[in-house]
């Protein structure tokens, strides 16, 4: 018996000493049909363990994280790390995020949007792929940030802590993985021809060749496709050749199906984004009087104005052209490409248990692609236990009609692009649940909060999304089948800054103005999205300066402001779920009494009529209504009155409204007998008013 | 390289010149050489998944051992022996057409015997400092140090032996050693030794031997063994970045403890060794390894290795049997619980010998090896347990009967069955991942004589 006990003891000690397989090893092991070199090996049905973690996306506060810049939790994956350069890897990884969940909880955000996870081209033209947008392998996790198990572990731990996780995905393009063999010599050429001079400054007989830069990696857009040229002239379509450089991972795209050349548009890089085409004007000045096509610079400019890229041409470039940086454009009109991309991202839903996708470069893909893709994702997620899978996209554009179109049904005609002849280019749809509210970024956060434009600008913008009329509303007004359960116009993703634009404080180094913008972000309707580091007063300029290394200072004054605003948003249901009704806006920006005032109510009680306003069915809350008043004027206090006109509110006469933003001795405002209210707000200030209990 | 060849030739000449006269020179060697086919037109290749797999398919290797003894006439007088072992690796000119060879100096030390007669020996130099191995896997599971250092041997009463050693190494890796280019004091570039941190390894052996315990020649021994590893802090420049940033490397340390039980003489040439080892921190990686899977402080704290191993040999007149096996658990220091670097592995192997005649023997070998890496494979996210079952037939010509009788010339035909996990360990573009079976057909020769390996 003693001997037996000693044996038992021995094995117990050994078990403790050695440890067994980790608890989650089998859970994180994916069912496999072999290495994922082909889509045929992707299994979407076995071992699918998905969970629904969201009740209403409007309750969420998204926090955008660039994994590489957030925190380095595991030094063992620090390949090619150079923290001195903003364009190189900095070592952040999934473990780093796990280690700083405490910070996210402290701040109060609820959903984490992580940068893309797939394996990328390592480095291109001296720039590293730390951001994750240069796909090389659609099915493999980027080893810089951890392995697939670590990714899933991070998602699970975030879920356990009440967070939701959104994955950033790219379907429009892949990394710079092939070149156009224009001269058919089999090697990628980067040639510069000419003397590089501006001819107008040189006497007759000097070099007149101008300057041309031709790169087979990234040639300019040609609507007919990139052509081959030899010394004798045109030679048909330029073949594409996949690069083979394992050091920088310029290897053929994986899985192998994507190596089919016909799956790419092969038209070269987008060269114009706006009308008129700036390149045209540059060339006018470059050639000057020697321009063989025009008699004068003025005539050239006139021609540019007249013949700048048409709307069709711009959209063709957007949708068919390679993204700058030589990112090769997939032909997403091909059914096989669509199926392949759908399978790829169903795979990521399966292995990652993500709660939604943030979709990159939305407008560079045909709208009807999204009309196929989004329902596919939703159906798959729902069939495996994940409901309310959110899909929102980035249409980097100041055209409200255009970006809104992606949230409508595919058969819903949205004519966003009027040509000079009065025709429209394309019918667009998309069925996304939401998009980034880029127009608000430009018009409201930049125009009003940064540069002091009239607050009427906000109302002018919002009228295209606050209406229930589907023909007036730029955004979808009905929820999508199997979608998040609320219509897109109620779920726009609001943001002040992101990784593609300069920080708010870069343009306007005024933290008071920034905090006011945060107050707007966190009191308006929709889904607020905070770019990491905004709360730490990061002030970087354009990419990559706006991708700073994160710091975790909970004593930062702006951190405290954001944290408190979030807690107020969480406390009052109306701030998350209520209808937004504008109560005051103004054209005044000077000394006027109401200069800079913007006020809105957030109303709960679906179906109720409040001061003549019927609360919509989507205001699924029953708590107190909230009145929010801003003064974006930086110089004097302003009030909600002008020329004897007072602000109307929905609160009954006599209601006492307390400014809950004020911690000490909060001011109280009383609604008069006509349901009018005058609220004075200090310069660059705001008030969040709720009925006194 | 040419100097090395010259030295080798010279020493060979000297060994022949003097060795036969006064025995002051001694030449010894270990070697194995083979030619083989994978039955697909290529050279036979090993198919193993554990860190020390079956040695059947090992490549060519030879050690040339030269020793010179100052005073060979007495076993109890002060004597100094110098040992020099040149190792040649698997690049043979007649095979590659390339006249360069990979060489290494495996021993270059002087040993002072009988500093205190019969009690104390002292050695200084570069030395393979080893204990017993598991021949079937070419694996020293307990004490196997390769350092530049020195030590003392104490031969105490009652066959009690104490070995103490301290050695250094500084591997050519940016973890230990780094040269960077800088400006010279005059003009142009110069090489600067930027990182120079030596790993210090100390070991202690306590061994008690018992001879003839049954009156029939049977013996036995117990050994306690420990190591201490230490590396000081340093600063390296990251060569993977354009700006060559400094990266601090903290000091680090580790410990190893282990024990061995051995028996021999229970039949002719028979023996049994059982080893157990536990290492932690820096020592868990071994003395010739660069640590990986570091913790967030870039240290090895938390890394551990456990080994349980055994080798058994038994012979009768017409039959001999080698058995070997080990179990090894390893965990690195990083925070990742699900980690391909962590896990356990084992191998068991049996090599029966049938001594058909004195010189002709028929050998077989059967082995099974398996590992369980505690991670998911990067190509498909699946958790595999790679395993290989191997069977080999080896008709052999040997100098004499006996499982360890050498020289030995043998034909080897081995067949390895690889499970899915084993195949997944090959690179994606390696065609071997498409086959369940790998074959090795070869002709081998193996010898050893006067080999100084410990």
Number of helices of chain A: 18
Q: Major beta sheet of chain B, specifics?
A: 18 strands, antiparallel, barrel
Q: Which percent range fits the helix content of chain A? A: 25-40%
Strand arrangement, major sheet of chain A: 16-15-14-7-2-1-18-17
Query: What are the segments of chain A in which pLDDT stays under 50 over at least 5 consecutive residues?
Result: 198-202, 411-416, 419-425
Residues in helices of chain B, as a percent range = under 10%
What is the radius of gyration of chain A? 28 Å
Which structural class do you get from the secondary structure elements of chain B?
Answer: mainly beta
Counted by DSSP, the helix tally of chain B is 3
Gross morphology of chain A: globular
Number of strands of chain B: 22
Query: Which percent band covers the strand fraction of chain B?
Result: over 45%
The mean pLDDT of chain A is 89
Tell me the fraction of residues in β-strands of chain A, as a range.
15-25%
User: Span between N and C termini of chain B?
Assistant: 25 Å
Report the biggest beta sheet of chain A as strand number plus sense, adding barrel if it closes: 8 strands, parallel
- Kindly name the structural category of chain A: alpha/beta
SSE topology string of chain B: HEEEHEEEEEEEEEEEEEEEEEEHE
